[in-house]
Amino acid sequence: MYLYLPVALTSINILIPVGLGLAVGLLSGLFGVGGGFLMTPLLIMFGIPSTVAAATDSNQIVAASTSGTYAHWKVGNVDFKMGIYLLVGGFLGGLVGVQAIKLLHAMGNADFVIKMTYVIMLGVVGVYMFIESLQSMKKKKTESAAAPAEQKESAVGRFLASLPLQTRFEKSGVTHSALVPIVLGAFVGVLAAIMGVGGGFLMVPVMVYMLRMPMHVVVGTSLFQILFTCIEVTFLQAYTNHSVDFLLAVLLLVGSTVGAQVGAVFGRKLKGEQLKILLASIVLIVTVKIVFELTLTPSLLISQAGGH
Amino acid sequence: MKTLFNVQSLKFAVAALMAAFVLLAGFAGSAHAMLTAKANHDHITIDFFYHGSSVSIKGIADAGTELAIKVTSPESHQTMKKKGKVGGVLWMNVGTLSFEQTPNFYEVFSTKNIDEMLPSSEQEKYLLGYPALAKHVEINGADGESDRMTWFKEFVKFKEDQHLYLSSAGKITTTALPDGHQEYFILTDWPYQAAPGEYTVTVYAVKDHKVIEQAETKVKVEQVGMVKTLATMASNNAAFYGFLSIGIALGAGFGVGLIFRKGGGAH
Description:
The structure holds two protein chains of two kinds. By secondary structure, chain A is mostly helical. Helices cover about 75% and strands about 5% of the residues of chain A. Chain A has one domain (about 1-140, about 165-295). Chain B has a six-stranded mixed β-sheet.
């Protein structure tokens, strides 16, 4: 059955957005990412104008991340304190990022810089996560489970411990200076704003490797953080660009809210390393896809410019 | 003085006679001209279940004329991104092109190939066919004539991909009528991608490589009901629309969460 979308000004078979929502919602509940890096290009592929695709996806993520955060919160896997610190940083980073884009556009070849940053970040994050989780899976097999993991006291570790405002994050079982999540949140916020993505795939590794949070808490906390980011983005997109298609968002969220629940349940059955290696594989697949897009001759050399 | 008056009245009489003659000739011409055009489905309404429509155009034309039918939206300004190779290997957006006096929707149907029917001067005069449109459209952001043509072709390809541009020969059927005229008919698919608005259908009768008559009709595409309400709200009441979209998303997220908890608790 087809439905006409009032803002996208196109008609779509309802099974497409519901199915896409289900698949991306599943990834969201499983890995704590918004899934915009998958959803937006898929929507464009199915004939949704690019500006509407990105804006509507953020509206849909509000629903999926609410559903996912709720599912993870029920089992105590959301570190609200850490989430709020990251959000504060992310908000500040977003402001800087928007200015950085203006600067890049003023310098010319902004698209090249943005695209390259995106591919390199995806590639580095994907490869690092993949290798690291593979190694820790091997290590777990050889070591006995009872042996406590050795805490490496690196120079970076000592520096972080010397920072003021040391705070205990109970849920994550870590102690950091309050400045650390704020600065890291800001860093992800800057990159996310420049690349025009939600930043979940960056935030997850940052929480795992830099904040040393347990993977299951990372997923729940990331979703909590994404929820607020996407509320803000949805409102701005609806208010300034009029590009949120409410009906498309409803069709997507029918699938994604259910998908997020299923993902959260499924995620509990997997080990942290298994989750990490799966996410790393997806990030690498997306990287390869973008590399192909960049190198193969496109069928259309012209596309609709964003905005009005 | 009197003589002068007489000369003036004579001049006036001659002028009046000439005017009457011209008028009569005009009437005779229009009585002969009888091209008509009618779209059967001239008011297309878009509701939630709209998935495109079909429009048939028919009318009467003089026997022995070839026909061309043009369907267009009003001309506007359109900004497009152009892709190009960076560093010889990577395809990415390399700038913008702005197309001026360009219709968003452009379809031309003809009984024969338009190049066989009309010389390029006539095509350009009536904006019939892609080559004529190419001359008419202004493109900012292209370097030189050959670059301009390359990007116009790419633009047409993009529009054809979206079912918004079409050039097709041979789809118009004609039937000879006993009174020496012919009836023409075409049934076209109206794409759902065509935005709401008013579209102009112009029918051209062609004889001896010249357009001899034109007739015009309109097709109006309009959103109705909830589709219209939502589209209007999105643009006129954007803040409320934004809050509503977020509210529904939050509600749905929590709602599904609660359902799953209940479902999970039962087991």
